[in-house]
């Protein structure tokens, strides 16, 4: 710039330069200034800029400046999009033809036509908008001629001219525009949207839009079309019924007609073609929503179950809930066969793209919320006439219910075989039985029924059913399969082709019918009937036959004596035809007697005339009768007269039958070979439950015969469809009804009354030994023994048959083997014990070696009466077990019998023959258990065998030995000898005439001192059991001490008995009486001791005369011939050898062996070798008579004996020596 005027100092100067900014942005350049010809200003200086300081007036004066730094010279903004730029759409719905795309852009510079600016939106893919002229612009963009559109890339562009309406401000330029596109028919995710702007060559900016919220606002986001809910239901699940099916669809998007939407339904199978409801291969739509816009009729493939519904109008709107709703109904005919609900699916798809691509097909199906259709339950549609059945989902489309019965019951009026029977059936179906399909109610498995091929129905529901011949009130019966068929349809006439339309049998309603059958002749349990619905056209999933509930609770009224139980009312329950009463009794069970046979029969069914009764089983079976083949019994073949049992007239209802020809009334035909009586029923017939009785006579066999097992059978019975018989029935025993029968005729006064089984036909009473018993009177050895016998038989014994009673085994047992009785063969007297026994002979043959007793029968006995007799024997001395006796009776078929004991009513024990009640005797014995058992002999033994003595003193001359014996048997019976042994060591010499006392009676025995044996020959022992035997004798004890003598006792005359061998005698100290008294044990000699022993002197002076005083006593008596007392160790005592005088009161009790009052003095050298003399005083007891001394005088024990004698003291001092006193055995004395 050239300066044109003077510039004053500090004067501000300003000027303006107008430039055109370039298109590209830049930072401000460094603006320099210099003033020429000013030396100090020759260099350029950086200029500042307005607004750089606190002065903002420059920015305020220039609205284009957004901030103060933009006021720098040639600062040029860089082109960019500002916050607030966004692209949105108005509709996310597929096929929407009016989706408005709105663009709101803000850039930071104004657009200038000079820079040739342009604006582009790209990424709008997924439209069906093809031509440019289909684009609509909104203000401020007004020049559409310069708009560029590319459908495939989704790009729309605006040139400079189109942008002339953009309005800048200080922040930049706002671009607001919108245009309309057509959405494609299928979904897509939102594409990425970009905004591009150019401003001059090489200057541009791009805006990449992120994901918006909500998702539907994102341009060209096309939602997935979805059926959010599909509902469907039907009005009837009944086979063959007219059925309305309802469909409802909720959609998440509207239906746009531009894309030709279609609804596809598949799987709707199970309907049949009914032209009265739908025209051929099309189906009428009813009650549609919307009311128009759904094409009807719609194409329908009935076999495949598919149909197509076209929607020809837009349905739905944004903001509605649901966005779109479509519903329609269709009416079909259910098929006859039941089925589960088919898997019905609903789908929707557009068949074109719409927009500029309308002709392009789009087969992509919409999403369905659930592949299965949930059951709808709008109460306005639900049919109140449909009966629920077990909660089944009957509303599911084309669910066709399995026809069955919610209840079914059957019963009958008569269970008697061959009887007319009314069977009643009540049932309730679970479906309406639609006549169009000719439904039949089929009652199967009526096993045993005999029904007319076309039978009349009874009860209230009969007229609602018809037979196969179209006759109302009837049913058809197939005898081969036992099936009753009833058509649940009515016809205007038998010539009508089709049934009446309206159903006569409705679901949930009970129906009752009955019909008549003749029961079979064979009994049977009630079959299980089955009920089934069968329809024309039902070829698959046939309804199952269901079991019918039998009447198991009702109890039918009785017919005469035939009573019924719960369960007999079950249909076709037929009682097994039986003889409910089939009794046959006889009047006489005795062999060979005429026997009246009484028969009573009763059946639980009726027997018509000409039916035949056969009574068989009259077979003779007498294996034990050796002459059975030669005896005449029963009756010969031929007519056998029948008799009325008193009070009845049944015999006239029967007649004889032989070779199929009728015989005389009141007779039967008896076949002896076959053992059969044949009878036929006359014209009157036999009624069910009525008892008939008659009788006839036969002869019994003569020996035992088991009862016959006759049976009765009825055959040639005709009833209804059947010809049959009543199975054989064995005749009953009459044990429980004897009182109602005539008493048995028995030849005997004491035969037991008729017992259970006694009246059985042809039971011939077995000859039985009813009772055989024996007992003995004594089990004691050597005793006289009466054997008493008793017997009783079941039949009479006949003398003419030379019968005998044979008793065997009359021998006792030793070690398990029988032993012969004493003596030889002989005859024994038979003693009758009652008046009856005179039928027996007076003598019997007896063989003791074999133990056989034979008693003859000489008179006729009375059956059932007891007979008693006895014979007498002598028992052996040896013990033995009782005999095992058998009785057999000759002349009849008796079986031998073990003879028991004791006799009936008697005790098995024998009084006073057992063990002794007191071991000390007394004669009382206990009862002998089992003592009456024949030929039992007790073992003789001791209950007491004790020995004791009277004295244990050494040398006692009067020691009494006492043996006490108590035996359980009388000892005298067998005259025994008694031997006592073991009494050795006495001073008693042997003697052949040794005095002994037995029971206080003196007897002479043999005594051997060396062996200590005492033998008594046949001593006077007691003749009663348990009596004390006392044997006593006297011996002299030895001098030395000793223990007891182990003595024994043995007794002859009882071989094999316990008392026969030597038995140890019990020590007295071991007995209860002498417990602990050991000195009383036989021959015990006690040890003698000095109880007192004292010696004192009168002076200790050397050489003095010294009186020595002695005091002593002993524990035993001292006899003079057995005792010597010595005082020894009287050291250095001085006395004259020889006799020495004794002093004191007791001096006369002693002697020197010859002179009383004197002792014997002696001295001897000390045995130890010391040089001293040992003095010794020896005394012999003189004694006196005393009870303790026995037969000889003695010094009694425990008495102090005091005496003195004088000696001279030694002259030499000494201590008192150990003086001793003793009685030495070496002196021949008792050792003390």
Strand order of the largest sheet: 65-64-59-62-61-60-63-58-57-66
Number of helices: 1
Largest sheet: 10 strands, mixed
Radius of gyration, CA atoms, in whole angstroms: 74 Å
Give the averaged pLDDT, no decimals. 86
User: CA-to-CA gap between the ends?
Assistant: 188 Å
Decide which structural class fits the backbone.
mainly beta
How many individual β-strands? Answer: 77
Uncertain segments: 375-384, 627-632, 658-662, 735-741
Q: Give the fraction of residues assigned to helices.
A: under 10%
Shape estimate? flat
Strand percentage, roughly? 25-35%
Task: List the topology elements.
Blueprint: E1 32-33, E2 45-46, H1 57-61, E3 86-89, E4 99-107, E5 118-122, E6 147-150, E7 155-158, E8 167-168, E9 173-181, E10 194-198, E11 204-208, E12 226-234, E13 242-251, E14 261-266, E15 271-272, E16 282-283, E17 286-289, E18 298-301, E19 306-310, E20 324-334, E21 345-350, E22 367-368, E23 405-412, E24 420-429, E25 440-444, E26 454-456, E27 474-478, E28 483-487, E29 511-518, E30 530-534, E31 546-547, E32 549-550, E33 579-586, E34 594-603, E35 612-616, E36 638-641, E37 643-644, E38 654-658, E39 661-665, E40 667-671, E41 676-681, E42 692-699, E43 711-719, E44 722-730, E45 769-776, E46 784-793, E47 804-808, E48 813-814, E49 817-818, E50 826-829, E51 831-832, E52 843-847, E53 852-856, E54 867-874, E55 886-889, E56 897-898, E57 942-949, E58 959-967, E59 978-981, E60 991-998, E61 1001-1008, E62 1013-1016, E63 1029-1035, E64 1048-1051, E65 1063-1064, E66 1066-1067, E67 1090-1097, E68 1105-1114, E69 1118-1119, E70 1125-1131, E71 1138-1141, E72 1150-1151, E73 1158-1165, E74 1173-1181, E75 1194-1195, E76 1201-1208, E77 1220-1222
Parallel strand pairs: 12-22, 23-32, 57-66
Antiparallel strand pairs: 1-2, 3-4, 4-9, 5-7, 5-10, 6-7, 8-9, 10-11, 12-13, 13-20, 14-19, 14-21, 15-20, 16-18, 17-20, 18-19, 23-24, 24-29, 25-28, 25-30, 26-27, 27-28, 30-31, 33-34, 34-42, 35-41, 35-43, 36-40, 37-42, 38-39, 38-41, 40-41, 43-44, 45-46, 46-54, 47-53, 47-55, 48-49, 50-52, 51-54, ...
């Amino acid at each position: 710039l050239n300066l044109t005027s003077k510039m004053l100092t500090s004067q501000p100067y300003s000027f303006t330069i107008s430039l055109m900014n370039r298109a590209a942005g830049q930072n401000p350049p460094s603006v320099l200034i210099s003033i020429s010809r000013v030396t100090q200003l020759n260099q350029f200086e950086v200029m500042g800029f307005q607004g750089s300081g606190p002065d903002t007036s420059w920015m305020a004066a220039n609205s284009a400046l957004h901030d103060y730094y933009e006021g720098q010279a040639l600062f040029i903004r860089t082109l960019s999009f500002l916050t607030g730029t966004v692209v949105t759409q108005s509709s996310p719905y597929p096929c929407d033809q009016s989706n408005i795309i709105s663009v709101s852009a803000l850039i930071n510079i104004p657009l200038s036509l000079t820079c040739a600016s342009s604006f582009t939106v790209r990424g709008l893919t997924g439209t069906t908008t093809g031509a440019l002229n289909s684009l609509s612009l909104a203000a401020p963009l007004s020049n559409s001629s310069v708009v560029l559109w590319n459908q495939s890339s989704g790009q729309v562009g605006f040139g400079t001219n189109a942008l002339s309406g953009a309005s800048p401000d200080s922040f930049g330029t706002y671009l607001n525009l919108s245009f309309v596109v057509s959405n494609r028919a299928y979904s897509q995710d939102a594409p990425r949207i970009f905004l591009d702007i150019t401003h001059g060559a090489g200057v541009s900016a791009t805006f990449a839009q992120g994901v918006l919220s909500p998702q539907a606002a994102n341009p060209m986001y096309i939602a997935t079309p979805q059926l959010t809910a599909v509902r469907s239901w039907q009005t009837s699940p009944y086979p063959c019924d007219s059925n309305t099916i309802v469909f409802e669809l909720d959609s998440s998007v509207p239906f746009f007609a531009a894309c030709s939407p279609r609804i596809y339904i598949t799987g709707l199978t199970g309907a049949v073609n009914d032209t009265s409801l739908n025209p051929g291969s099309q189906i009428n739509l009813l009650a549609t929503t919307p009311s128009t816009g759904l094409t009807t009729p719609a194409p329908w493939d009935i076999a495949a179950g598919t149909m197509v519904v076209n929607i020809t109008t837009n349905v739905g709107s944004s903001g509605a809930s649901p966005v779109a709703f479509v519903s329609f109904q269709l009416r079909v005919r259910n098929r006859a066969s039941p089925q589960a609900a088919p898997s019905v699916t609903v789908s929707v798809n557009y068949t074109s793209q719409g927009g500029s691509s309308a002709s392009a097909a789009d087969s992509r199906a919409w999403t369905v919320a659930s592949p299965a259709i949930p059951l709808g339950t709008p109460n306005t549609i639900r049919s109140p006439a449909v009966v629920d059945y077990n909660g089944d989902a009957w509303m599911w489309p084309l669910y066709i219910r399995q026809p069955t019965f919610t209840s079914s019951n059957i019963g009958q009026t008569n269970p008697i075989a061959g009887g007319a029977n009314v069977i009643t059936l009540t049932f309730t179906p679970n479906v309406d039985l639609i006549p169009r399909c000719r439904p039949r109610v089929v009652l199967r498995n009526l096993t045993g029924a005999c029904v007319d091929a076309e039978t009349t129905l009874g009860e209230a529901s009969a007229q609602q059913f018809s037979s196969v011949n179209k006759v109302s009130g009837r049913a058809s019966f197939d005898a081969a399969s036992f099936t009753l068929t009833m058509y649940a349809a009515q016809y205007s006439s038998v010539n009508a082709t089709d049934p009446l339309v309206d159903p006569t049998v409705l679901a949930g309603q009970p129906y009752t019918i009955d019909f008549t059958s003749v029961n079979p002749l064979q009994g049977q349990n009630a079959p299980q009937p089955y009920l089934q619905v069968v329809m024309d056209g039902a070829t698959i999933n046939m309804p199952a036959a269901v079991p019918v509930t039998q009447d198991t609770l009702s109890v039918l009224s009785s017919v005469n004596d035939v009573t019924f139980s719960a369960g007999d009312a079950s249909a076709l329950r037929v009682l097994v035809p039986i003889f409910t009463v089939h009794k046959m009794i006889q009047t006489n069970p005795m062999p060979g007697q005429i026997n009246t046979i009484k028969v009573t029969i009763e059946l639980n069914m009726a027997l018509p005339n000409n039916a035949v009764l056969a009574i068989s089983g009259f077979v003779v079976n007498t294996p034990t009768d050796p002459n059975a083949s030669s005896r005449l019994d029963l009756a010969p073949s031929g007519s056998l007269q029948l008799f009325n049992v008193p009070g009845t007239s049944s015999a006239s209802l029967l007649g004889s039958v032989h070779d199929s020809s009728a015989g005389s009334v009141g007779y039967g035909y008896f076949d002896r070979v076959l053992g059969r009586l044949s009878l036929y029923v006359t014209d009157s017939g036999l009624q069910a439950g009525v008892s008939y009785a008659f009788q006839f006579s036969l002869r019994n066999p003569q020996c035992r015969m088991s009862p016959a097992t006759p049976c009765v059978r009825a055959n040639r019975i005709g009833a209804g469809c059947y010809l049959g018989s009543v199975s054989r029935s064995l005749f009953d025993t009459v044990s429980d009804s004897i009182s109602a029968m005539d008493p048995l005729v028995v030849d005997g006064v004491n035969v037991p009354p008729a017992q259970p089984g006694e009246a059985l036909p042809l039971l011939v009473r077995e000859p039985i030994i009813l009772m055989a018993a024996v007992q003995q009177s004594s089990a004691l050895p050597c005793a006289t023994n009466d054997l008493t016998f008793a017997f009783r038989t079941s039949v009479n014994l006949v003398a003419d048959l030379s019968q005998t009673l044979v008793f065997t085994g009359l021998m006792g047992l030793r070690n398990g083997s029988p032993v012969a009785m004493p003596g030889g063969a002989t005859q024994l007297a038979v003693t009758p014990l009652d008046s009856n026994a005179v039928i027996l002979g007076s003598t019997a043959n007896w063989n003791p070696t074999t133990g056989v007793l034979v008693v003859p029968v000489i008179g006729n006995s009375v059956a059932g009466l007891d007979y008693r007799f006895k014979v007498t024997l002598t028992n052996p001395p040896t013990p033995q077990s009782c005999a095992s006796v058998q009785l057999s009776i000759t002349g009849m078929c008796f079986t031998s019998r073990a003879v028991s004991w004791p006799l009936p009513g008697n005790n098995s024990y024998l009084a006073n023959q057992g063990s002794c009640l007191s071991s000390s005797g007394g004669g009382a014995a206990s009862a002998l258990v089992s003592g009456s058992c024949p030929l039992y002999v007790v073992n003789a033994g001791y209950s007491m065998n004790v020995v004791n003595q009277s004295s244990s003193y050494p040398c006692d001359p009067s020691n009494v030995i006492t043996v006490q014996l108590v035996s359980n048997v009388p000892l005298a019976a067998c005259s025994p000898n008694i031997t006592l042994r073991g009494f050795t060591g006495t001073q008693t010499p042997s003697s052949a005439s040794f005095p002994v006392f037995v029971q206080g009676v003196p007897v002479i025995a043999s005594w051997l001192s060396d062996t200590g044996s005492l033998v008594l020959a046949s001593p006077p022992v007691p003749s009663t059991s348990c009596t004390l035997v006392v044997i006593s004798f006297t011996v002299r004890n030895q001098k030395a001490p000793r223990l007891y003598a182990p003595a024994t006792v043995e007794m002859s005359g009882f071989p094999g008995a316990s008392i026969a061998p030597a038995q140890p005698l019990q020590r007295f100290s071991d007995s209860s009486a002498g417990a602990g008294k050991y000195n009383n044990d036989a021959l015990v000699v006690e040890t003698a001791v000095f109880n007192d022993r004292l010696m004192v002197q009168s002076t200790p002076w050397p050489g003095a005369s010294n009186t020595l005083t002695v005091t002593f006593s002993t524990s035993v008596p001292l006899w003079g011939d057995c005792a010597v007392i010595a005082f020894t160790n009287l050291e250095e005592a001085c006395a004259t050898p020889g006799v020495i005088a004794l002093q004191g009161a007791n001096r006369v009790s002693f002697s020197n062996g010859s002179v009383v009052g004197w002792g014997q003095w002696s001295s001897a050298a000390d045995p130890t070798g010391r040089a001293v003399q040992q003095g010794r005083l020896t005394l012999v007891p003189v004694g006196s008579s005393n009870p303790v001394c026995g037969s000889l005088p003695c010094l009694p024990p425990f008495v102090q004996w005091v005496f003195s004698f004088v000696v001279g003291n030694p002259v030499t001092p000494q201590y008192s020596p150990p003086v001793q006193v003793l009685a030495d055995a070496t002196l021949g004395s008792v050792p003390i």
